[in-house]
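Lab notebook page, bench 4
Experiment: in silico fold of construct C2
Operator: M.H.
Input chain length: 232 residues
Purpose: comparison with the prior construct
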Amino acid sequence: MSQPIVGIVSSNELIEKGTYKKPVQDVNDDYLNMIYKYGGVPIIIPNTNSFVSLKSFIDKMDALLLIGGEDVSDRCYSGKKSENPRDNFEIEIYKYFKQNKKPILGICRGLQIINVAEGGTLKNIEEDKVEHKIGMDGWVNYHDIRIINNTKLKKLISKTSYTVSSVHHQAIDKLGKSLVISATASDGIVEAIESFDDTFMMAFQGHIEKCLNNYEAYGRVVKKFIEEAKNE
């Protein structure tokens, strides 16, 4: 059986180029290496104003990975078009993969996009006992999460608590329809969600792609994601 193709929607960045900043679309190597490691072939999908123009390209993909990046616009909460084309594109592609019952994995912003696409809302995180933001010196914080019983995540990880890296300041406020909370931080922030039905859809607020060597149980999630893609 051929290796499954996993589409990854690119992020937007401005990089220094001499005397000006150049807009680029890119994907961090950590995401690509994660897919390679567990037997998939990652393909970068440029975010665009026209989903239709990429449909024949997207149809060749077996699974979808939604990755981190900039904040999601609150315009999306009411179903309006965002001023950021990436928001609109990712919501549309998420719904398309869901409609076609293809596996979906979300990380950081990816979790937030999935929640908004399902009719949920987001909030900004207030300062609390758990540090979810990157430090001024670039330090990425780690914290514990509580994995909820009787969830798909609990079945895969087989732990009641675990650890994850954390770099975000938006988080789920109202949970979207057809979603189940599968992990939380001690301050109540939703750290993982999954689909209510039997289709594979999981998403994490933390950056599991950066934790795979030290927290190997996350690899079981990615392995399951790739296995489900093989069955498509």
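Observations: The CA atoms of residues 133 and 139 lie 9 Å apart. The radius of gyration is 17 Å.
Next step: discuss at group meeting.
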